[in-house]
From TrEMBL:
This is ABC transporter ATP-binding protein. InterPro entries: AAA+_ATPase, ABC_Ni/Peptide_Import, ABC_transporter-like_ATP-bd, Oligopep_ABC_C, P-loop_NTPase. Belongs to the ABC transporter superfamily. PANTHER family: ATPASE AAA-TYPE CORE DOMAIN-CONTAINING PROTEIN (PTHR43297:SF14), OLIGOPEPTIDE TRANSPORT ATP-BINDING PROTEIN APPD (PTHR43297). It comes from Streptomyces omiyaensis. GO terms for molecular function: ATP binding.
Length: 330
């Protein structure tokens, strides 16, 4: 990539920030552990999400995807420290107090499909009761129409009407997942964070759920899809952000990422090569411990393209953080 193209990409990034529903800069999360150790769960994440856009955040287990989502909603545990900014409609989510987040952000401005839905459902209430209560809390639907609104939300998330009167412990993982998606859709929030919304679903339900989430974004809302499921991401994402060891190492338009050109970061290429319908070749080795990250590029020990340059950490430049990307940046 030459300097002109890199400059043009930077200009696109600036314009994207201006029009964004969500604009994240330098988002960093550290967990302080007993004994003085620190977990560098998220480091310096920068990204924007535009109205009508689906951004898929992908990466191996433990790379920091869910922590990033929890940081945006103020749901981190007490041993977490955050830095950076995350702007939604003039509110910095990282600086906002619990009152603001509870009253005007969660459910209203940002809907969440949580990663472990069963843990978010109250054990003594049926799915119908959860849905109706959420309709009451987040919408102006009159009492007489709440039952129908709850049933419609269930239907959008492919949650079967036959199980609406079931309690959380009676649901399979896939049903709990669909209940959580239905709950997240109710508030019609301009921004939806969906953390592994297709876990535990059969392929046809994966497609149905992904398509429903996509429809949500098509109406001018934003969707941050956090997923291991690259097939679901390929189906609905406009852009892809790849995370490794707490850092976003590449952002790319989905058509380029999944198309013939492919991504530029060796880790992102490795993720795609690991897919059964591609080379089916796993990336060798394991990600580093986030409490013991190397000084330089965290992927270097597993990287086929690593050289001495990789002893220093690469900055994110023109969409990729790598000293030796597939297509070099100027
Ligand atoms: N409360 C905590 N204290 C210390 N470390 C934590 C805490 N919560 C999460 N972590 C660590 O933060 C890192 C990122 O976790 P996260 O759940 O965000 O990963 P992920 O990419 O979402 O993976 P998965 O898809 O498996 O959930 C992990 O190393 C995890 O162990």
């Amino acid at each position: 990539m030459n300097a002109r193209v890199a400059r043009a990409l930077d200009a696109v990034t600036a314009e994207r920030a201006e029009n964004a529903l969500l604009s994240v800069r330098g988002l960093t999360v550290r967990f302080r552990l007993r004994g003085g150790r620190t977990v560098a769960a998220v480091t310096d994440a920068d990204f924007d999400l535009a109205p009508g856009e689906c951004l898929a955040l992908v990466g191996e287990s433990g790379c920091g995807k869910s922590v990033l989502a929890s940081a945006l909603l103020g749901l981190l545990p007490a041993n977490a420290e955050t830095a950076g900014t995350a702007l939604v409609d003039g509110t910095d989510l990282l600086a906002a107090g619990e009152k603001t987040l509870a009253r005007s952000v969660r459910g209203r401005r940002i809907g969440l499909v949580p990663q472990s839905p069963a843990a978010h459902l109250t054990p003594v209430r049926t799915v119908r009761a959860h849905l109706e209560e959420t309709v009451r809390a987040l919408t102006t639907t009159p009492r007489s129409r709440r039952r129908k609104a709850a049933e419609d939300a269930a239907d959008r998330a492919a949650f079967p009407a036959t199980h609406l009167d079931a309690y959380p412990h009676e649901l399979s993982g896939g049903l709990a997942q669909r209940a959580a998606t239905a709950l997240a859709l109710i508030g019609d929030a301009p921004l939806l964070l969906a953390d592994e919304p297709t876990t535990g679903l059969d392929r046809d339900l994966v497609e149905r759920t992904a398509d429903e989430l996509r429809r949500h974004a098509d109406d001018g809302r934003g969707l941050l899809l956090i997923t291991h499921d690259l097939t679901a991401a390929a189906r609905i994402a406009d852009r892809v952000a790849v995370m490794y060891a707490g850092r976003i190492v590449e952002t790319a338009p989905a058509h380029r990422f999944f198309g013939a050109t492919g991504p530029d970061h060796p880790y992102a290429r490795g993720l795609l090569d690991a897919l059964p319908d591609r080379a089916f070749t796993p990336i060798p080795g394991m990600p580093p411990e986030l409490s013991d990250l190397p000084e330089g590029c965290a992927f270097a020990p597993r990287c086929p393209r690593a050289t001495d340059l990789c002893a220093t950490a690469p900055a994110l430049h023109a969409g990729v953080a790598c000293h030796r990307p597939e297509r070099p940046r100027a």
